[in-house]
Amino acid sequence: MTAEIEWVTGVLRVGRSFEEHGDPYDFSCTINRRGDCAELIGGNGTITPQIWRDVKEALVAQGVTHAQWDRLNNTPRSIVANSTNQLSIQPSDIQHYTLNS
């Protein structure tokens, strides 16, 4: 007999001076994960184009191909991986990408 743990929740931290745990960061959020889908929630801080590229790169590196991020202005966005392993933001059908539904 054996046991396995599948981690489904994490914290993302990113910023201009962030290199490792304990460094200052500009943006953070909680991530819930189901397979290759991630839901980004509770975001706090500033998102610049570079920070957004770093977030997308980190998600792709972890095997995420789809993500849901509900922005503060209530405009749902889908983050989708394309053939070049880059994630793009597109208008989404929130029912299609919402986790735990």
Structural write-up:
The chain is 17% helix and 39% strand. With 101 residues, it is of the alpha+beta class. The protein has a domain at 9-14 and 22-80. A six-stranded mixed β-sheet has the order 1-2-3-4-5-6, with helices on one face. Strand 2 and strand 3 form a beta hairpin. The longest helix is centred in the middle third of the chain and has 13 residues, at 49-61.
Write a compact overview of the structure shown.
By secondary structure, the chain is of the alpha+beta class.
| Helix/strand order | EEEHEEEH
| Cross-sheet strand order for the largest sheet | 1-2-3-4-5-6
Strand content: 35-45%
Structural class estimated from helices and strands: alpha+beta
Instruction: Tell me how many strands there are.
Output: 6
- Assign an overall shape: globular
Helical proportion, percent range: 10-25%
Largest sheet: 6 strands, mixed
Distance, first to last CA = 32 Å
Low-confidence stretches: 91-101
Key descriptive features of the protein:
2 helices; 17% helix; six-stranded mixed sheet; 101 residues; disordered C terminus
